Amino acid sequence: MYFRATLSTFVLFISMTTSTEGAINQTPPWKSPCGKTTIPPSFLASLGPILKQAVPIKRMLHNVIIELKETDEKVEAIQQYYVRQKFVDAVEANIIQGEESNLHHIIGFPVYKGIQDNDTIEDVFYRDYETFSSVLVFLEQSSWDVVTISGDTQSVLQMYKSVISKILGILCKYSNSMENRNITYVSRDIMQDEDREVAIESRLLRKRDFIILKDLRVLLKKMIPDYALLKQSTP
Predict the structure, then answer these.
(1) Alpha carbon distance 175, 215 (integer Å)
(2) Angle (nearest 5°) at CA 157 between 61 and 37
(3) Each residue of 114-141: pLDDT tens digit?
(4) CB within 8 A of 106, min separation 6: which ones?
(5) Measured torsion, CA atoms of residues 102, 107, 108, 110, in degrees rounded to the nearest 10
(6) Can you tell me the distance from the alpha carbon of 148 to that of 136, in angstroms, rounded to the nearest whole number?
(7) Are the CB atoms for 211 and 104 separated by under 8 Å?
(8) In sequence order, what are the residues at sequence separation of 6 or more whose Cβ sits closer than 8 angstroms to the Cβ of residue 89?
């Protein structure tokens, strides 16, 4: 009986590891946040230059602010789910988000770089494209590891997918506004292997995810008022 249970656990671990490794080798979604076209490049080239109707910057900033707020709400919902389902102890959750918040951080997760006086809107979008792409590296891993969490895994997986989709929508807006600027795409390597290890205790895995969510909310809380001021100063 013990051998059969151990064998099942081993098979689950192998399948999880193989699945994660296969996903890691796929093209990162932040390289094509607007989605991929199925139209052959040769056909597009034959059409010649295609004029795009530019969205006024002020309206676009307004839309981005809305999506940032909605993203924050979705991230908060995942945090509440973790506490409600006891994935993370309520006392520990308060400590992670409290006065000792700065002591709880996953190496490689981006820290928000505020808007500078001499920044152009394109500068802001370019920098935040890298920031949100880095965020996706960590959220992507958390979503892959949901299978290690007991309980209603489909619910929390859909929550993660919803957040990732929101951020990709923001990146798409950035991308469409920076057509004349080459974007340097981040690598999944910014997240250390030891923080990806699916064999670690599930309690530590959940704590890792909760810290990622906490730091994402910290980032969003700083970004939202910055974008509001940027919108206010934009003609």
Answers:
(1) 24
(2) 55
(3) 999 899 999 999 999 999 999 999 999 9
(4) 138, 191, 195, 208, 211, 212, 215
(5) -10
(6) 19
(7) yes
(8) none
